[in-house]
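Lab meeting, item 3. Inverse folding demo.
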């Protein structure tokens, strides 16, 4: 899942070197934190959060194959 989020985020931003993705377990959920440069934050979130919702939907679909619950946090 980490690699999936990283590939999507790097394709969206102007500074792909500043994309940092970390994974951690919280209870029985996998938490993926996405950090980008402040100048790229708008590109990752999108108008009314549409791109952020799309990223979360893709990750949720990929996680459903493995019966995992995944939370994507954008910082």
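The presenter then showed the designed sequence:
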């Amino acid at each position: 899942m980490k690699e999936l989020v990283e590939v999507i985020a790097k394709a969206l931003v102007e500074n792909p070197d500043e994309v940092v993705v970390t994974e951690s377990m919280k209870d029985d959920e996998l938490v993926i934190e996405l950090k980008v440069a402040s100048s790229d934050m708008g590109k990752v979130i999108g108008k009314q959060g549409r791109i952020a919702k799309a990223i979360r939907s893709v990750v949720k679909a990929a996680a459903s194959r493995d019966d995992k619950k995944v939370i994507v946090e954008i910082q």
